What does this fold into?
Amino acid sequence: MNDLFSVSSDEWDDDDAAPGGTPGRPRSPLAVRMRPRSVEEVVGQQHLLGPGSPLRTLAGGADVPPGSAPTSVILWGPPGTGKTTLAHVIARGSGRKFVELSAITAGVKDVRRVMDEALTSRDLHRTTTVLFLDEIHRFNKAQQDALLPGVENGWVVLIAATTENPSFSVVSPLLSRSLLQTLKPLTAEDIADLLRRAVRDDRGLAGAVELDEAALEHLVRLAAGDARRGLTALEAAAGVAQSGTGVDGGPVRVELVHAEKAVDVAALRYDRAGDQHYDVASAFIKSLRGSDVDAALHYLARMLEAGEDPRFVARRLMISASEDVGMADPTALQTAVAAAQAVQLVGMPEGRIILAQAVVHLATAPKSNAAYNGINAAVADVRAGRGQGIPAHLRDAHYPGAGQLGHGKGYLYSHDAPHGVAAQQYAPDDLVNTDYYEPTEYGAERAIAVRLERLRGIIRNG
It folds into this structure.
């Protein structure tokens, strides 16, 4: 099967690790050749690999106490931070059988077969099966449930990898039976050390190139914390440098121009269905609220360049216009709604200009959450049971018999009153004189506050 890879740790094939590869076989990518063989070679994630840590214990091949189940682990982190690497390192322990499944192509049938084989290996051969399941978030509930017997009974050591928050993407029974380990993005220094190692290591470029410092900085910046992306970019840059140089036996110098030619732009890390989606959107809204127009434009560009639906952005702008700007600038909502409509008519990529105008308007506008706070306070009172009944003079008096009930009696028509404001009770009896809307002193609300004070004085005091 293409999606199933099984090998005993004692039979691990390192042919591809050699710089030239095995004759007759394609050379493996640099990122594969540089995959660590031990915990000591792992770059970053030292917060998870300290002495006595579960991952180090698993990687060291420590024996599982009799009668206890091996520890299954869920590795959560951005791409290129070492999830697959850690799984391979763990699988190298003595007496281990490594099985790899991809949730993209595997199904329940594949999972059950692995579990059956793992049980046989444990009982007959005393071999522990390490099941690495990549992108577990792509498994549906039924597929994840199929993993439970093997995990719960200790038939396999499950190493599941995901780029999405397991709280949202992994079923609770499986999550509770596994140890969640959160991987952090690699630092710039981590990536730089890895690239330097790849240049000199026999499994990597074996000293065939020299890496210019400016080129190294560019590759590190493009990697954006992703080791795989950094190694791939380095290999491409080395290829560009070597293609334009004659064979003289000496190392080829990889300069900035080679790195720039090999990799035009960095791929953006943004998962529209995962936690990155919510993190970037949250930063976007908070930048608008905080009046940082430059940061807001950055997050707008980040979402759009990653392929985010512009309608999602437009909806967030309309909400922000009322929640964070409100009556301090009543035209903000008009701009946001117009932007949403215009984007649907114009489309992308020109729609980015329209969204940018709305972002600039909202970010630079005076801010007020008075309307937002007002409706929240009113909702809280309704949920608490306050506001019982409606004053009789405000009730509907149009249907037959309403007059006999006193509906509408004594109602004052506002347009007949001085200034168009009638002095009468509007709120329920238990909410008379309750203030929900409290305007700020910012923007247009400064004038609204003065007018509101006069309106309340007329309505409540006559």
